[in-house]
């Protein structure tokens, strides 16, 4: 071979520098926009353009939010009445301005509903809902069903309710403004419901079920808040057909996985959605804010922590959805018409929206599970028939002069991807569990650090395994075997998806469909490039003359194992070297061996290396992109990677780019969107008593899923990224193990309540929180616990997984001007005479309850009662028993809600006189006070707010901030 000059490598060859740069760019190009979309809501157009295009003043809507969030306004507060009056006036002014005289405004002061809240709790509730009916102008033959839009205007007693549910409320006002304009009159009649009492057992929505206007509604849009800002996400939907309306949004956001989490009980809180879906059998959407949860139900759920961008995102998506619903002229949603299909849906970069029926995705899944492997195996069969299945070839067929054994070792890289995946995944899971053990709440404020730590660890372990394997036994099949293992594991995930779809009717694992499609397609191209190789029995003829010494047929055409250390072979270029002469150095010129990279080793005939008898084990060198000299660019393009099989020089040089573009983007996009939603959703639920171990394991699982597509290429990385990852892992691991987990921006949420015994005057303050922190938080920061005051802490009976600390506090002043003895009255008497005769065989007790400055009480029975009835002493309103208000095995608690102050209730309960019904009926009457807007009303709560450290914040423990109680017996 003639002497030759340096050869220029193409940047797109499968070499370390191009692979490192290309894969890093792909991941950065995907992660950066996904993170921006996840955390940053879109900006609205200018207010002037909005007023011209849709006739809605967004700035005025934002100012309205300020008006209704000045105070905490739970149902049981005077501020609640003020907000209700303001909203009615606001709606009336909108209707008058638009001169829409077909719009009806209803203040529901009539409906009283009595229903079963859960198995042993019955609830009596008096409605204070606001209903606005916008008449549609569509001409339909028969009933098509009306549309309902819902939000609740009450807040919890510890939050002004900016996003729960103030943004939704002012959005409803904006929607009323839009649809009452003459140019935007809907086809279907639209009802706008602002319900009161959602925060306490979804009472307002339940009351609406008994209102006559509810009977014609068939489609609904529920607007909710379970976080304090960000984007509004589609929490869940009843079916695929109604979810199609959400596709109209310009910036859709959400995944059906969240709906599956509700369906399977992983999310325990609920919204009004379950009332419209379960009680009224309507079909609709649940659109809600969902992050961050640390501010949810606290004083930081305020305008300071939301933005007009968040308001706009909910308005834009709800307007688009509602326009579709109200303009729908089909009969799809008539009661009993058409079958509902479970929907599988997700957004694409916050700009597009994909939706499928679960039946279709199941068929799709089954086809991929069966047909794709068959097709791949058929392809493998064709490769075997054409004698090009290098992946499984150990030696070519020997005919004639070929030596009896000539190794190709295509299967050499078979196990290393599996070992890399197993070890790196085990390391990530171990690290996640270690953090959960040492510093379990760190996820609360450091989600990004958790992601960075686990990702860097997975990459480091994977890189180390494949590079050590490549150093010990280099092979050109590492990429293809890596893709094959990733494809196989995605097939297993897809199988799990098929089971979930068929048995559980959940489609939230839809990402496995796209994951497997991408990996199997990448594998197809990996097999396809094998067709460009010569048959294995031609490999010997393709060797340069003299490259193989027939005296030693044991020499391999691949890099030898350690057992072959005595083999010495020549490079293809050795045959063209000039013979030794007087100018030849006594020492072998190392430049002929790859510019000094392999001193102490001699390359064999195909460019790999045999280890001499006195040589040391090879080391991984940095300059792997160096290429031997040659004068022909064609030969340069066919050069194989140092140390790998000689036949790999015949592989296509650019296939890896196509495989990377197929294998990485689609799985990463789909999986990262879900991972970010899941990670953000669970990160701060530890303060609610949820298991943090589950959260860390989910982080580990999604870390593995996000990085698996990178495995086939990681063995070509240069050392620079791993060195950076070492620093990232070390820094984040140390931080996650030792850092304090809470901050002002991510405060620990604790729960407050105060109980007062109205027979003895004793009171107790309760703070409930994470066991590790709550006692110290109370004893070190609250002055009322100092000076020898005993603080008792024990497991909380209401919020499992949390600890309750209790101590005597300052007496509240919830009924100004009245001593605590007169806050409430409760009388229990045995009913006798004619009334008792009507209930022969049963013992009937009448309990009269009244409370000053409150409209919420409850009656707790020591044993269950079989029947219960609640009467309004004033005779106002109509009480409607909803379905079965008392369960078959009785109830042990009645919850009572009144729309009027200082009025009270008459409760009659009956129990069987045989068996457990014998003897006096005993129990406890509790009345609630929830108004904390004025300082001094609940001094203990004022103290908590004033003295809690900046890294914590208080929320309400139950319906009442102060619970006054007394015993009864009859």
From TrEMBL:
The UniProt keyword set, sorted, is: Glycoprotein, Hydrolase, Membrane, Metal-binding, Metalloprotease, Protease, Transmembrane, Transmembrane helix, Vacuole, Zinc
| Segments of this protein annotated with the region Disordered | 566-611
- The signal peptide stretch is none
- Biological processes per GO annotation: proteolysis
* Names of required cofactors: Zn(2+)
Q: Which GO terms describe its cellular component?
A: vacuolar membrane
> EC?
3.4.-.-
Name by which UniProt lists this protein: Peptide hydrolase
| Lineage of producing organism | Eukaryota, Fungi, Dikarya, Ascomycota, Pezizomycotina
